[in-house]
Fold these 3 entries.
Entry 1:
Amino acid sequence: MPLLWCSSVHHSGFSSRRPGFKSRQEHQNYQLRDVHYYTRLEILLPFGRASEDMPMDVESIRGDFPILARRLPNGKQLVYFDNAATSQKPQCVIDAMSEYYSEYNSNAHRANHTLADEATSALEGARDAISSYFGTSPDQLIYTSGATEAINLVSYAWARENLSEDDVIVLTEMEHHADIVPWQQLSKERGVEVRYVPIDTNSFTLDMDAFEIAVQGSSLVCVVHTSNVLGIRNPIEKIVKLAHLQGARVLIDFAQGAPHERIRFDDSEVDFVAISAHKMGGPTGIGCLLVKKDVMSQMGPFMTGGSMIKTVSTDGSTFREGHALFETGTPRIAEAIGWGAAVQWLEQFDMHEVHSHINNIASWTAEKISEIEGITVYGDPSRKDSSGAVSFLHDSIQSQDLALLLDEGGFAVRTGHHCAQPLMDALGVPSTNRASFWLYNTMDEAQAFVKHLNYVVDRFSDK
Ligand code: PMP
């Protein structure tokens, strides 16, 4: 297990109410436990379980994704480099969802008939598979529509129950809007202070000296695991340690981490993890919030109505407990089944191998395109912990035009602010082009991309 070393960690006393911890004693116990390995911080999001994984065979992986064989209307072979926006889906996910609709479509948890039983078992079976994939138990997984709803759930169900105007929330400049706007709204409503940790625009990493200052006296720290723009992985383990020493709870936005890194939630010290299914081979419309048991007991209802109640009378209602309290109305049955199939499909791989495959393509691509005159790369894909996102801009071809010219060659890349406008402001650019890779992408595709980009720049730039 990798270790992080930290020369000095300062923490203030438990001077005020710490909403993250039930009592002063709980917080002190945490601190005492921590002092034990003060300078030797064990990684808190352990990943890459030992398993009997099969070696990665990219050609055979590609065979599981029918869409990758697609040609565009101009006859060009599709090269899909927009994986950070959403990944493609393997055939088993498509089949699992279509089987549900064609063979046992029914509402779950509601009726005593065969189809309802089958739908309920499949929905809960998927919860078992997904929670096990993330190293936790089914009762700690709340289904949501995606990472955005998961973060909003923390903001409505936990923060509005536990935070007030004396509290501080720490964010970073590299957060996705999904992890900024809910906290700005809370701040407007409750007067909670929001602090933003800047990035170092030379290394594109989080300014950890500034983090150590910002985290002082905070109650909640919300950090993106891997930036969807820069591909940079934040030092989550150190961040969690520093946050907990302040008595703050920690929310990790794992939307971009989940496609290439395993997490054992129960072995980690993270309080909340927000995840999207659609970036890791699952369908759109589903994701989850993982929550530690003690923290779930501090959460109040968010959306109310059917399913989350025990009883309803004209005098009032009583509510269910655990994840059921937060899953209101008809569940996302087909989507959960599809996501369950996706994680079972992913189980066959060693995620270290997947990560290094993606990282190799990204770092090679970044190096080659940064040699093209006029191209600037934002991020540092040469870092071994960087993900597969390569953001870049050309100094005379506008990003929208460049994306269209790449599309002409069959290459699907993302263009825009990537829902990270504060980061764009820090970088001093309005938008970037972003090529992002997943496990089915190949070096051949990357080479073809670099060749086409060279051609486009040669032909269309102001030289
Ligand atoms: N956070 C990050 C880092 C993301 O990249 C995204 C998706 N672009 C989200 C949050 C939002 O995820 P979802 O689409 O599941 O709501």
Entry 2:
Amino acid sequence: MATQDSPDRGLENADRPDLAEAGQASFDKIIAADSRIEPGDWMPDAYRKTLIRQISQHAHSEIIGMQPEGNWISRAPSLKRKAILMAKVQDEAGHGLYLYSAAETLGISRDVLNDQLLAGKARYSSIFNYPARNWADVGAIGWLVDGAAICNQVPLCRVSFGPYGRAMVRVCKEESFHQRQGFEILLELANGTKAQKQMAQDAVNSFYSPALMMFGPPDSDSAHSSQSISWNIKRFSNDELRQRFVGMIVEQVKVLGLTLPDHDIKFNEETGKWEYGELDWDEFNEVLAGRGPCNAQRLAHRREAHKNGAWVREAAAAYAAKKAKKEQVA
Ligand code: FAQ
């Protein structure tokens, strides 16, 4: 049983069966009114579990997602580009922190979540297991990866769980700047020499499919979608958001003077939906199984960074203890 001090306190309703009937009725009413569940409210165990799963995966994605671009801070082509990229990577650390905090309000500790990540037991977005090979890839990450993230996350501002939705509002504002910086990198390369334009095109070719796969498996294979939609966690299905994203980038790529590596993209007037070519879902499943191009490297790097940061955590804890003692005396 979870105790008040255990890291996963409050994860189950089993401790208070007397609250179940009234709690469920109140929860159903809040969801039906499209209003917000707050951390102190009764919620079904499965709702809490789903949110912890999604929010923690999202937080881990932000933290691991710092790596592909972080590698380029020291190699950015100018001081201005370096400053912009540093700000972006710092934002991602901040997003991870808001999200871990939102997950903590559900009764799980950040230490437990971090241990799950370091042990290789937690998921993070498939996209961050692809390499950033050159500066054009940094541009494609900003334009396509942050672009897909915005498309997925704007509806999450209206998620039924209060702390997650409020965190998303700020995250989305920052993601918009991230996407613009990526687009601008690609625009400059696309208007540069022939070789630079080719670099930009190669980067778009590499990141197009992995970015589309960020939205998750096709609806027919999405285990969690229908339940999450009924709880107002997801507002749209994976395929709906993927189609919306294709519609966005199909126009933006024209401004870049580049092309998308997919000849099957078209708007179907009858269904009102964007159609695109087959995606390689075997590749997606391989990445999810830990066998993508950079899975091992990303986790090894995170473990090393955690180890190297031990002295900072110890110093912060010692300072907090000293401060608390001082306040007690005063
Ligand atoms: N990668 O039933 P569904 C960013 C898993 S942040 C890995 O459809 P669901 C910012 C899924 O977990 C990017 N795993 O799942 C940035 C489940 O496995 P499980 C992160 C994936 O939850 C930019 C299974 O497949 N964003 O980019 C993926 O209903 C640049 C079945 O799937 C978020 O996390 C995937 N792509 O829908 C940072 C947004 N897709 O848990 C740095 C919040 C699916 O049963 C640099 N999350 N899976 O073992 C969501 O909106 C949802 O969780 C989905 C998946 C849409 C990702």
Entry 3:
Amino acid sequence: MLRAAAWRRCLTMGLRLDYKTDLWVDWCPGCGNFGILTAMQKALAELGLKPWEVVIVSGIGCSGKTPHFIYANGVHTLHGRAIPFATGVKLARPDLTVIVDGGDGDLLGIGAGHFVALGRRNLDITVIIHDNQVYGLTKGQASPTLPAGVKTKALPKPNLQDAVNPLALALSSGYTFVARAFAMDVEHLKEIIKAAVKHRGSALIDVLQPCVTYNDLYTTPWYRKRVYKLEDEGWDPVVRDPSERPVKLARAIEKAQEWGDRIPVGIFYQDPTRDTLEDRIASRIPSYRSLPPALQRIDSNGTPIVGERELKAIFRDRLIRVKKHH
Ligand code: SF4
Ligand code: MG
């Protein structure tokens, strides 16, 4: 359980709020996960969010441990199911900041269907992918983002399958914020996380993350030579009017194909003009935001949440009176 009282004491004492827990972080030394964790902690602190306003949801993989290391609400869920869990949390409490933190194997392999569904819904959740092209926790098998024909040191032969492009998939699924970052540039990643959390709608950040133990191809020096920032070249990702959507979306999908000698990072696409799923639910259920499902009364004695009086009010047009026969 979250130690809210202790945190409030910190606030009143003016102590540093760094979102760190006292657990030992047991990733391999040099792993890109450290950069992602630090960027998340800094972003949450700089956004001024309180730990009880934030929920981090992870699946299975090395990245799955992230919620243990962040001083906020956390759920370490099943393989590929972080997005459905997060969806439930967000629908039940739309006022909370919900972040999904998972691996490329978890989110784009077994969890790919959920990944697409989140974009269609444009629910206000941020998804951070630890993209290291391997399944690190299970000894380095090829993940869905490893290109065909390449052989990392854990593979006996070159990879036979083509890679999925996380940015292009997110863009065509309907995500309204799509970005890429590099785990070893913590300050830049932190700013992108802040922008993604502030954005209203489904947000994806694909984080290029070296796995020092199993991926000897896509290393920190390999990335450092190639990565460049979109904003340094005047890229404008923002859709200011729905009529701009087709052109900006097509440009972003094309840009997402750039890979090799030059690899772009930064915000590829941002569309704040589309309704979120919460907006659509609220237009159908006016009390949704003021009385979301998780804040509704639940009787401890087992009687229904909705009483007879409320039921009669809801179904008054359809009620029929049945005569008692003795
Ligand atoms: Fe990081 Fe790879 Fe080690 Fe996992 S196996 S902790 S991804 S370096
Ligand atoms: Mg991985």
